Amino acid sequence: MTAQIISGTEVAKQIRAELKQEIADLKEKHNLVPGLATVLVGEDPASQVYVGQKEKTSENLGVYSERHDLPADTSQADLLKLIDKLNKDARIHGILVQLPLPKHLNEEEVLYAIDPKKDVDGFHPVNVGKLMIGEPDYLPCTPHGIQQLLIRSGIQIEGAEVVVVGRSNIVGKPIANILLQKKEGANATVTVCHTRTKDMAFHTKRADILIVAAGKAKAVTADMVKDGVVVIDVGVNQIGTTADGKRILSGDVDFDGVKEKAKAITPVPGGVGPMTITMLMMNTVRAAKVAAGLA
Ligand SMILES: NC(=O)c1ccc[n+]([C@@H]2O[C@H](COP(=O)([O-])OP(=O)(O)OC[C@H]3O[C@@H](n4cnc5c(N)ncnc54)[C@H](OP(=O)(O)O)[C@@H]3O)[C@@H](O)[C@H]2O)c1
């Protein structure tokens, strides 16, 4: 069997088209323009690329976007002052602080300072807690993107054995929580594996849906999955550089081997990646609607 390729690029395009229409309608009917502020401290090249992509996507969709580039030696107090200002700014519905922050800054304190209603990343403990009890205002972007990829690819989630490899706060734990909810697009039986799991292959071989977010290139190989599995590969690992200096990327799954057994699989790049920013836009639109009493 050769797997169906689940294209995040295509699904993201579909969702962005829907969002663009919704944003145009909000403007026309309610004079409401969703606003996103991005905050970047320092000059980390990867972070600059990510913030640039968020800005560009905002502009393409009609989201008002405001970028705050702060020097690497910004103090905690100054950063908190900016967050406070953005919390009070009515044009801004979503605030995104690009991580990681420089080492001298207290990341936790900064994220906790964001008004939970503007926490479009879904990392504030209020939003983490709300997700846990099944009443989320915002789902964190990457796991939400994974759920949308599954739903929109027609994958049966209800009753499925889902195995998640990885238990980070930004991917592993929230996706496990999302798919565990007693809700449509969820209702799965979820197992979470990590570095202390005794026999990972025992679990991965049982998976109907296998979600891998380990951050280790090709950690999951064909002998670790069953025929007909659906694989979502979250990993992005640089495994080399081309002659002309481009990064060679690999997921956490050995794509070439696993695709011969899987029913469906996401590629890297072009799988989960394009979904993350799209879901950030979805959260920003939701934040604007909530602020205006429309949701
Ligand atoms: N496409 C996107 O938009 C997107 C977004 C976020 C992340 N990512 C990518 O997804 C990957 C994971 O990100 P993350 O932030 O969740 O990583 P992370 O914080 O490093 O967490 C990795 C998790 O995987 C577990 N793990 C590592 N190696 C393992 C192994 N060999 N067997 C079993 N478990 C293992 C770790 O276990 P312990 O807890 O025991 O250490 C940890 O829980 C990275 O490649 C990252 O770049 C992509």
Number of helices: 10
Gap between N and C termini, in Å?
Answer: 44 Å
Helix percent reads: 25-40%
Derived from helix and strand composition plus strand pairing, the structural class reads: alpha/beta
Describe this structure in words.
Helix content is 40%, strand content 17%. It has ten helices and eleven strands. It is globular and about 55 Å long. NADP nicotinamide-adenine-dinucleotide phosphate binds next to helix 10.
Spell out the blueprint of helices and strands:
Layout: E1 4-5, H1 8-30, E2 35-41, H2 45-61, E3 64-70, H3 76-88, E4 94-97, H4 107-113, H5 125-132, H6 141-152, E5 161-165, H7 172-180, E6 189-193, H8 200-204, E7 209-212, E8 230-233, E9 237-241, E10 247-250, H9 255-258, E11 264-265, H10 273-291
Parallel strand pairs: 1-11, 2-3, 2-4, 5-6, 5-7, 7-8, 8-11
Antiparallel strand pairs: 9-10
The structure holds NADP nicotinamide-adenine-dinucleotide phosphate.
NADP nicotinamide-adenine-dinucleotide phosphate (NAP) binds at residues 142, 165-168, 170-172, 193-197, 200, 213-216, 219, 234-237, 272-273, 276.
Write a brief structural summary:
This protein is of the alpha/beta class and 295 residues long. The chain has ten helices and eleven strands.
List the main descriptive attributes of the protein structure presented here.
295 residues, six-stranded parallel sheet, 10 helices, 11 strands, binds NADP nicotinamide-adenine-dinucleotide phosphate
